[in-house]
User: Which sequence fits this backbone?
């Protein structure tokens, strides 16, 4: 993955992330030895303007399906078109590196696939002021700040439920556990139950590593959950955003779609709804994800209803 030129970086952050005062804010955070605040602001703006979605995978003709390439991450990232984990996290790491941060991508196991092969999830790793953070802008219900891997366990609410990050010394990896219930509001039968969502390491991986390991997810319609279900996430633009990009995090709202169910939630609660068919969701998706091509949305929903 290439680093952005100074002009590309400025255009991207100003116009795609809608952060016109980013240079001044970055300098202020750096001068105050608080660059983690600036990274948090980038993450939160990224979640608003660069959607997590699998519309592109669903609408690629079967004969043209292939695994991810570095050029895909650059094209989708530069345009703000969004994508799945590897597109979003690889691109965001490139942005961080272009800003001078020490960052790389690493591999994880996504437990929607049992047994899950290595490399089914891509995550960013940030090293800052002697501390290590996870950065995941590429999952369907992400944390909206850097994950302090040096200070675990760490619990944060997302999608109306809590997630806890833990270190597993036996396997020398990190884990993300889902607490409370499902992201669509259903409680676990046992209030003490926790479900493992994914695990990952901090070891650097090249983008070519994922090209090899994501073949099934990107091409196999019989076995890929990304080719048989609808997955979308974004944060809604916050009324508390200032022109300088000082995002407080309070009152932020999020939209998550999983199969035929949708949820709009904030820190106080959520509204969830289930649809009978995918095509019934079309107006909702176009309303809340306006950057998506409506023609491709229709094509994706029609395809899913045909399965």
Assistant:
């Amino acid at each position: 993955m290439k680093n952005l030129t100074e002009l590309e970086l400025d255009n991207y952050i100003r116009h795609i992330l809608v952060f016109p005062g980013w240079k001044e804010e970055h300098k202020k955070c750096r001068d105050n030895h608080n660059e983690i605040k600036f990274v948090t602001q980038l993450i939160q703006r990224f979640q608003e303007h660069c959607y997590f979605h699998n519309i592109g995978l669903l609408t690629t003709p079967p004969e043209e399906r292939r695994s991810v390439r570095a050029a895909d991450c650059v094209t989708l990232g530069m345009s703000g078109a969004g994508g799945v984990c590897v597109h979003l996290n690889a691109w965001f790491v490139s942005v961080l590196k272009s800003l001078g941060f020490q960052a790389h991508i690493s591999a994880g196991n996504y437990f929607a696939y049992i047994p899950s092969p290595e490399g089914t999830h891509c995550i960013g790793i940030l090293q800052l002021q002697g501390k290590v953070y996870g950065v995941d802008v590429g999952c369907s219900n992400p944390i909206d700040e850097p994950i302090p891997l040096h200070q675990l366990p760490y619990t944060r609410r997302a999608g109306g439920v809590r997630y806890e990050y833990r270190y597993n010394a036996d396997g020398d990896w990190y884990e993300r556990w889902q607490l409370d219930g499902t992201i669509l509001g259903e409680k676990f039968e046992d209030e003490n139950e926790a479900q493992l969502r994914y695990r990952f390491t901090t070891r650097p991986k090249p983008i070519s590593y994922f090209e090899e390991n994501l073949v099934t997810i990107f091409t196999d319609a019989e076995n890929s959950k990304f080719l048989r279900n609808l997955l979308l996430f974004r944060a809604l633009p916050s009324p508390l955003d200032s022109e300088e990009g000082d995002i407080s995090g309070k009152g932020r709202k999020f939209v998550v779609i999983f199969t035929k169910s949708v949820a709009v939630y904030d820190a106080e609660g959520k509204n969830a709804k289930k649809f009978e068919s995918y095509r019934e969701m079309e107006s909702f998706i176009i309303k809340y994800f306006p950057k998506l091509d409506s023609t491709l949305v229709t094509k994706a929903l029609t395809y899913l209803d045909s399965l």
